[in-house]
Amino acid sequence: MARRRMSQTALAKALPLSQAALSRRLCGRVSFSLHELEGVAGVLQVHPSELFGAAFTHSIGGGV
Q1: Could you tell me the CATH number of the domain that includes residue 55?
Q2: Which residues in 39-60 are b (16+ Cβ under 10 Å) and which e?
């Protein structure tokens, strides 16, 4: 979100989720659904895999 200069409130409205519901997901208290992750990626204009970072990609792909 920071790279796209988008606030939690703006992202929440685009999904649509409440800001509180999005915050719970971003803090890890509630899991994102696959549909929500696809929505986040679409709003941020990134591939869904970019939401998980290098550590996740490497562990799945077997890379170092």
Answers
A1: 1.10.260
A2: bbeebbeeeeeeeeeeeeeeee
pLDDT in tens, 1-21: 656 688 999 999 999 999 999
| In a domain? residue 3 | no
Domain tally for the chain? Answer: 1
Between CA 48 and CA 40 the distance in angstroms is 8
Range of the domain at 44: 8-61
Query: How far apart are alpha carbons 39 and 56 in whole angstroms?
Result: 19
> Per-residue pLDDT tens for 14-51?
999 999 999 999 999 999 999 999 999 999 999 988 88
Instruction: Judge whether 1 lies within some domain.
Output: no
